[in-house]
Design a protein that fits this description.
By secondary structure, the chain is of the alpha+beta class. Helix content is 30%, strand content 21%. It contains four helices and five strands. Strands 1-2-3-5-4 form a five-stranded antiparallel sheet. A hairpin with a 3-residue loop joins strand 1 and strand 2.
């Protein structure tokens, strides 16, 4: 099997926050929403069922823990967690912190408004907020 490579579109649209035991954690470069993406570091995977049983359980654990920590750290009113893959086929799961005051509420965020990129300081601040997520697996 070939080595894991992040899909070009994810690589271009996101910042790498770090790695959990199975998944790479990405931050979508759109400051309108705290929007994170988990991508299993397994080559050639397009669907959850392509993962072996142990990987499926690990992904579920990492996704649930990520959602819980994001919910607390960003004081979410609602967490949207979804895996669509219609444009980017590589398996990836979106974790989007939502607020009734956000720019797209109550609609989905996809294609709603042009992205507003983060600046370098904002990305660094968000990375610090995620330290509790990564420390769970040390």
């Amino acid at each position: 099997m070939s080595e894991f490579q992040l899909d070009n579109r994810l690589d271009e649209d996101c910042f790498v926050m770090g790695d959990l035991p199975l998944c790479r954690v990405l931050l979508m470069n759109d400051s309108q929403y705290p929007w994170f993406i988990l991508v299993p570091r397994v080559a050639g995977v397009h669907e959850v069922f392509h993962l072996d049983e142990e990987q499926q359980l690990q992904m579920a654990c990492e996704s649930s823990l990520t959602a819980a920590i994001l919910n607390d750290v960003f004081e979410a009113e609602k967490m949207n967690v979804a895996a669509l893959g219609n444009v980017v086929k590589q398996l990836h799961v979106h974790h989007i912190v939502r607020y009734e005051s956000d720019a797209a509420w109550p609609n989905p965020v996809w294609g709603r408004l042009p992205a507003k990129p983060y600046d370098k300081d904002q990305v660094s601040e968000i990375k610090k907020k995620l330290e509790s997520l990564f420390s769970c697996f040390e």
